[in-house]
Specification:
This protein has about 140 residues and is mostly helical. It contains 6 helices and 3 strands. It has a 3-stranded antiparallel β-sheet with strand order 1-2-3, with no helix packed on it. α2 crosses α3. It is elongated, with a radius of gyration of 16 Å. It starts with a helix and ends in a 7-residue tail after the last helix.
Length: about 140
């Protein structure tokens, strides 16, 4: 039985965690590097429910996913968090897709992109935590 974990997660805490994970130095404008304190709220996405900011300096629109592997993916923060958790645990693509509520192809492509964007140090840390979670080191999804 697949539990709807995305419905049980808090949207605000998921967004806060993703901000710390994806933007450790804080969310900034991709063009001029100004912080969100120098931006205005522009809109909230319909599907993702993410806040889009418009920079006061250069008028660039950006959000939590800009400049990351989640860019232009229609995932809300809860789904993104569940996807990262499933990949880190080493779950199968099918089980992650069913849990998150997206296609297997989307999970596969995001997992491949995630591993490709990680640096060598982060890749080693990611694999180490995955090995501890699953008890084995299997590079295949």
């Amino acid at each position: 039985m697949i539990l709807p974990l995305a419905d049980l997660l808090d949207a605000h805490s998921s967004e806060r965690w993703l901000t710390q994970f994806l933007h450790p130095s804080g969310l900034r404008c991709p063009r001029c590097r100004a912080g969100t304190n120098e931006a205005r709220l522009f809109r909230r996405g319909r599907r993702t429910r993410l806040i889009d900011y418009r920079c006061n300096r250069c008028d660039t629109v950006y959000n939590l996913y800009t400049g990351t592997f989640f860019f232009r993916k229609q995932l809300n923060p809860q789904q993104a968090l569940l996807l990262l958790r499933g990949i880190q645990k080493g779950d199968s693509v099918m089980s992650i897709a069913m849990e998150v509520g997206v296609s297997r192809r989307s999970v596969y492509n995001l997992a491949r992109c995630l591993r490709g964007n990680l640096g060598h140090e982060a890749q080693a840390q990611f694999e180490l935590s995955r090995t501890r979670a699953t008890g084995c080191r299997d590079d295949l999804l």
